[in-house]
Amino acid sequence: MCKATCHRKAFRGKQTRRYINGMPRFVLLHHRTPPHAAKPDHYDLMLEDGDVLKTFTLWQLPDLSGPVTALADFDHRLAYLDYEGPVSNDRGEVAQADAGTFAWIIREKGRIEVELSGRCFQGVLKLELQEDPSEEEGSDSTTSV
């Protein structure tokens, strides 16, 4: 695992796209959840897509050597690209495991491939997607970071 860490402050308000050299950004957040949470600790991979972050739950750090099973989650706000700290409504806290830019390779139902250019992960990440029926669609839109 990459030892690089960043310390980000909370961002309140609307954040707009800020591609780096024309490339969309990604962040991999380690989400530590409280004992009463429905999901155990996990990683949230967030991929910039216009004004939202396409979000995928990973149960461990991704492995670039083969496909990784991930749960498709609801879209999140761009503020999470630069955020570390507590998550509202007692949902735990997040810390950056990696961040950088990426390029879409394959984007289809059930499968995504992206080329990551992060501080830690450099290469192609292949996701095999599963739907998570326990998540409410869009629940992030009304809560603060």
Automatic annotation (TrEMBL):
<feature type="domain" description="DNA ligase D 3'-phosphoesterase">
    <location>
        <begin position="36"/>
        <end position="124"/>
    </location>
</feature>
<dbReference type="InterPro" id="IPR014144">
    <property type="entry name" value="LigD_PE_domain"/>
</dbReference>
<dbReference type="Pfam" id="PF13298">
    <property type="entry name" value="LigD_N"/>
</dbReference>
<protein>
    <recommendedName>
        <fullName>DNA ligase D 3'-phosphoesterase domain-containing protein</fullName>
    </recommendedName>
</protein>
